[in-house]
Amino acid sequence: MEQMVELLGSVNSFAYGYFLVGLLILASVFYSFKLKFVQLTMLKEGFRVITEKPDGKNDALSSFQALAISVASRVGIGNIAGIAVAVALGGSGAVFWMWVMAFFGGASAFAESTLAQIYKSHDGDGFKGGPAYYMQKALNQRWLGILFAIALILTYAFGFNGLQSYTMTSAFAMYYHSPLEFEQSHWTVVIGISSSLVAALLFFGKSSWIGKVNAYVVPAMALFYIALTLIVTLMNIHMLPAVLSDIFAKAFDFEAIFGGFAGSAVVIGIKRGLFATEAGMGSAPNAAASAHTSHPVKQGLVQAISVLIGVLICSSTAFLVLFSQAYVEGGSTALPLVQKAMGEYFGPLGLHFVSIAVVCFAVTSLLGNYYYAQANIKYLTDSKLVMWIFNACAVAMVFIGSQMNLKLAWELADVLMAVMATLNIIAILFLTRIVKITLDDYLMQRKSGIEPKFDPKKLGIKNAECWE
User: To bridge 106 with a disulfide, which of 20, 226, 304, 323 should be the other Cys (CB 3.0-4.6 Å)?
Assistant: First the structure.
């Protein structure tokens, strides 16, 4: 078992240290220039279309609900604990490079979500879609779609949901003298059962329920978390110039960067910016495809905004940590560092808030991850029995993850995520022309003063049956 974990860890070090990061950077920067920085130039338009209604489609998600699902998956425990790890290991300079890559990542997020909308399929009164669908319909490579779907299902429904459940449970270890004492208590089982019951209720319910739940919980928690950060910033306003100066200074400390490149602020910040926002990874398009909208570009713009929301949460955590004495003293990382920092500002209430925030972000991430996975189960088969078995296994994984540290499952999930991300990046790069002509069509209609309507036949786009 330990040898397998070490082997997978070595594969992950290569995949995430150089290969996958390089591909994601390539796609993000390429699309930013190709689409003339659509994530910035059309930001205002993106906010306009978020409120678009699903026009009476009973099970179709609105643009806002699709946004909430993708944000729920992007904004998880990784945006709290993961950022604390990045700052602790890479220093404050990692924050700058996280901002840079999140900015460029908005373009690849736009591209993949626009493609998901173009090639979506009917799902009752709603829609389903994602990279597996455009790999088959646009590239005529069903085998690629099958491989992608399997990798995503194993990664999100089992690997990442197990991780979310475990981290959520371990957040309460701070209330005990030691993690071991907490693990031996009955609370791990209570938390595991409770989270499993919530998961069962929503996993076995209608897919649209997940969008409706996340549409309320995600904005509330995100706004409250960001507001708390603003309060902390005002409390430490005298330190802000020094913290910002340190971020930029450490970001361009090239002697430190090239002295240990793999662990430098550049690499750690870039990786965190890419993975915290999931831009280009092929996950968010599964939610983007489910929205009912009049033009694919609208959902592409909405998903670019979800990247912005993700990086705001990441930045909030970074500033919470950088202002704290716990960061200066060192010795803590991940979730305990955030909990200690919040405790400095707000006492026991701060600690309680982090625990509540972790639970809320974890639960919504569980739902977002599940939504992605079930969309790919539907790609593989229409069997209700298979879906029922999958739902049961996904619920069981929530409980199992809450009880044990499944290092093997997480290392395997990381390898599989590298596979799905690589397949998605290759696909969206091959489909650049489709994204470009779709965006140009949208811009032309907006300049003409009309609300854009998508007509694939006019653009020569085939296999877009939901739009014909």
Answer: 304
